[in-house]
Amino acid sequence: MKQLLVIASLFMATLVNAQGKFEAGMGKGLGMMKEAKTAPALAEASAFFERIADAEKTQWLPYYYAALTLYQSAWADPKADKDKIGEACKVLISKGMTIEKTADLYCLEQQVAVLQMMVDPMSRYQTYGATGKAALENAKKIDATNPRIYYLDGMTLMNTPEAFGGGKAVAKPLFAKSVELFKTYKPATPFHPTWGADEAAKQLAACN
Amino acid sequence: MKRLLLGLLTTLTVLALNAQIKISGTVKDTKGRIIIGASVVIKDSYDGGISDSLGNFSFKTFEKGNQVIVAKYVDYKTVETPVNIGAEPIVTNFNLKEEVTELKAVTVTAGSFEASDRKKASTVLSTLDVLTTGGGNADIVASVKTLPGAQQVSEQEGLFVRGGTAYETKQFIDGTVVNNPFNASVPDIASRGRFSPFLFKGTVFSTGGYSALYGQALSSALILESIDLPDQSQATASVSTVVFGAGLQELAKNKKSSWGVNYNYTNLAAYFAIVKQKPDYFHIPEFHSTDANFRVKTKNGMVKFYTTYAASNIGLRRPDIDSLVLKDAFSIKNHNFYNNISWKENLGNGWKVNTGFSYSTNRDELSQQVQNVTNTPVTTGYSWIDNKNFSTNSRQDLTQIRTVFTKRISGISIVNFGGEYWYNYTNTTFNNATYLLKDNFTALFSEADLYITNNLAAKIGARFEHSSIINKANIAPRISLAYKTSPGAQMSLVYGEFYQKPENNFLYFNPTSLGYIKATHYLVNYIKTTSLQTFRAEAFYKKYHNLIVTPPSNIYSNNGDGYAQGLEIFWRDKKTFKGLDYWLSYSFLDTKRQFNNYPSELQPTFAASHTASLVVKKFISKINTGFNFTYSYATGRPYYNFMANGNKYDIRDQGKTKDYNNLGFSLNYLTKIGKAYAVVVASVTNVLNSDQIYGYNYNYNATYKEAIRPPAPQFYFIGVFLSWGVDKRQDAINNNL
Predict the structure, then answer these.
(1) Considering chain B, what percentage of its residues have pLDDT values greater than 70?
(2) Is B231 helix (H, G, I), strand (E, B) or coil?
(3) Do A112 and A184 sit in the same domain of this protein?
(4) What pLDDT, on the 0 to 100 scale, is given for residue B219?
(5) Of A109, A141, A173, which residue constitutes the final position of a domain?
(6) Do A163 and B670 touch (CB under 8 A)?
């Protein structure tokens, strides 16, 4: 009986430990991400998420955050090599996709396409713009209620000249839709992405 | 109690085990250079760190016992080191070996300008650039002329590259050569290219030393790669001062296939009524052109079909140079039918195949008639005038099949090999006499792209050709080396032999007495690129052998030769001035050749010593308008008049034209008209109204010469291009994202 108890408690401990490790790791990573204000700090957070991802092998979220923080590091440093970082982000996103194709990974793919387009928008808009648009289409197919899809779509339109079908007027309904969806949006776990509600509200206000 | 004890014991054990051990070291490459930002991690754990600006890393871990430490960095081979983690800190250093990758590897680019988005670093001209080159009127060749190596020749169509004739430049679409890439033209006026820039996603303009995959062009290759599936279905229409057009492009719902049709009608009647032209047009230039395409995705590739049919009619009268009252009436009717089908497939296992078939037929009905003041035909009794009367019908067919296999050999190194077969059929009736030419031409080629390290690459190839009409074969070796001198900068060396059949008009009598004309190219090139700037300098030496000479006896031979050498600079900058994109080209050319009726080695009439272009583009988002300027300059070109003296020609007169100046301007205004997205284009050539002289025509005894000038000093264009259904969001010219 006593032996059984020991075995059971050891088993429980291992189980709790294993689950707790991922949660603790994600918690720490999200903390690092929140605190990170500089490109090196974001790169460090990215490396940390990548370690979790490589160790876990079955979780797409750490790959998502590894790519997201790396993507953010490209904007944090005006001198950053956006192409090199973009390519590295794509590798992380595709690793995440092999685990699970999610709307948020596709959204991030669009963000990375825009990042690389911005290196030389005049000559790259056709290829990278199309990649970004296709990524959002894929995201919609998986989860049309993800509010970040409409926020990102709106941002692209907002920055597109009116003569090409962009501008505030067409972007506004997308921001409105995003804000509306955020009202009922519940991340599946505390570690699922939550960002975007404030940004969408701010852009919606800017359209008025 | 026991349970409590057990719990306590477990906790203690865990705590004891959880004492953290420090792991540190440095990460360098195999040459001992520091690697910043490399990731070092204990395999399958969360513990790790990244190397800092000195290459040092340090982290703590709870892991114990036999573990594996992994060090990795983008474009380097990952290294794993087994360790046994006990109670002591561990110091371990890593040396990572660079991986040869497509992104990082040096590419052999000497001699060519690649204009696509495939290789970002070498992108020079995009489709958008072709559309927005000031004064270029969306003609691919007009834009290419702003690049170094090309001459500003405007009295005839074609690309004159590095001392070479227009015949020495060939255009290829999806691998197969195009026989008649330009619209039918009349003497002394260049015509436009037949193909719309919208058809192509990539353009490579090679000014020398190009790949063994291409042949039968002594000087230059313009390699065009057609687009794959369009992004979306759309309908288009255009209205302008000279062209009316409509088109439809339909993308299947499953996005696996697409088809499209286009029709354009060009008529210059209204334009000529307003803008006076020097020649008297008795048939105003009129063009019909229609094309259709079909593209379908296969398992791992794509099949593309493109067909186009065009018909044109032009007739014009100009004063006869040997008379004060007579006129020469020249007319040309042209029909051109071009078809191209290509198939690209990834066969797996490192194998790719690229095969193409093309068929074209071109018919010209040309005639020239000497007429009097009332425009009726006359016979003067003077042979030098009456000999100007002629009529000719000609049909030129070209059938081609070509297959290239690509096999990945190791890393990213590849070998290409394949072959092609051309059947040329030309049937010409000249003043009732008929001449027939048939040629079976075969070529086999093989070329390896070897990536020795990320910094050193080589392209080694050879080409074997046989032409039945001259009944001769040749073997042309080509070698290029590229070495990366620093990030973004590289040097290249190129050597190659190039052969070409003599032009058809030399082959009507005793063709087997003639051999290939030949050129040997040597190039050295330096390129430095960042994503927004490109600097390129290239020096070349080209030796011509066995050029065709045409002495007064009309016994043609391969006794000509010549050389061309020079230096070219290119600078493109999208960075220094915000929102402003400009490029600058300069070419120095020293060339002489003996060919055709040239009595000795002379600088040819199509070669200027100095040529420069400045292209400036500015898009102002606030007013949705782009402004584009192109300034081209060339020093004067030589002109000659030769006279037969026994079995050779003497130079009777010679000189140099004045310098050439041309400022072109265009603006594009983007707007919406109803539901259609619209682009309004306005452009004008030769804004400064410079007097442009391309050369001189002589009367029969060279007592009088007349300058060759454009038919009107300027060309104006105003048009509206509309498109429906297409979501142009990705087309937006976005500077403010």
Answers:
(1) 93
(2) coil
(3) no
(4) 94
(5) A141
(6) yes
Q: Does one domain contain both A135 and A186?
A: no
Domain stops at, among A141, A161, A190: A141
The answer to whether position A20 is within a domain reads no
Domains and CATH numbers, chain B: 17-96 (2.60.40.10), 112-731 (2.40.170.20)
Q: ipTM, 2 decimals?
A: 0.79
Contact with chain B for residue A110, Cβ under 8 A: no
Q: How many other C-beta atoms are found inside a 10 Å radius of the C-beta of residue B262?
A: 19
Q: Is A159 on the interface with B (CB under 8 A)?
A: yes
Q: How far is CA B377 from CA A205, B371, B386, B390, in A?
A: 79, 4, 10, 12
In this structure, what token pair is assigned to residue B320? 């006869």
- On the question of pLDDT at B190 being above 60, the answer is yes
- Note whether A12 contacts B: Cβ–Cβ < 8 A: no
A108 and A123 housed in the same domain = yes
**A181-194 burial, b if ≥16 CB within 10 A, otherwise e?**
bbeebeeeeebebe
B731 and A130 within 8 Å at the Cβ level: the answer is no
A90 lies within 8 A of chain B by CB: no
In B, minimum Cα distance to A24 occurs at: B46
A83 touches chain B (CB under 8 A): yes
> Are A48 and A95 contained in the same domain?
yes
Say how many residues make up chain B.
Answer: 737
Dump the DSSP string for B88-144: S-EE--EEEPBP--TTTS----TTEEEESSSSGGGB---HHHHHTSTT-TT-HHHHH
Query: What does the mean pLDDT of chain B come to?
Result: 89
Q: What is the total count of domains within chain A?
A: 2
* Structural contact between residues A94 and A66, judged by C-beta atoms closer than 8 angstroms: no
Residue (of B352, B226, B347) closest to B294 by Cα position: B226
**A-proximal residues of B, 682-711, CB under 8 Å:** none
A21 is a domain residue: no
Look up residue A26 and give its amino acid: M
**Which positions of chain A have pLDDT values less than 50?**
13-16
* Closest CB from A87, A121, A126 relative to B737: A121
Clarify whether residues A118 and A151 are in a common domain. Answer: no
Cβ atoms within 10 A of the Cβ of A51, count? Answer: 28
Q: What is the pLDDT of residues B407-426, one digit of tens each?
A: 999 878 899 999 999 999 99
Looking at the complex, report in whole angstroms how far the Cα of residue A148 sits from the nearest Cα belonging to chain B: 17
B574·A125 Cβ contact <8 A: no
Buried b (16+ CB within 10 A) or exposed e, B163-175: bbbbbbbbbbbbb
Q: Do A176 and A207 fall into the same domain?
A: yes
Q: In chain A, whose CA is at the least distance from the CA of B132?
A: A122
Query: What DSSP character marks residue A3?
Result: H
Instruction: State pLDDT tens for residues B521-541.
Output: 999 999 888 878 889 999 999
Write out the residue range of the structural domain in which residue A128 sits: 36-141
Interchain proximity B732–A87, CB inside 8 Å: no
Q: Which candidate in A164, A168, A170, A203 is best for mutational testing of the B interface (most B CBs within 10 A)?
A: A164
Identify whether A15 is part of a domain: no
Average pLDDT, chain A: 87
Residues 160-179, chain A: which have Cβ within 8 Å of B? 160-166
Closest by CA position to B609, among listed B151, B158, B271: B151
For residues A45 and A94, membership in a common domain is answered with yes
Residues of chain A found within 8 Å of residue B671, distances taken between Cβ atoms: 163
Q: Does residue A172 sit in the same domain as residue A102?
A: no
The residue ranges of DSSP E strands in B349-389, in sequence order, are: 351-371
Is A85 part of a structural domain of the chain?
yes
- How many contacts (CB atoms, under 8 Å) link A and B? 125
pTM: 0.81
- The reply to whether residue B733 touches residue A88, judged by beta carbons under 8 angstroms, is no
- B337: enclosing H helix or E strand: strand B327-348
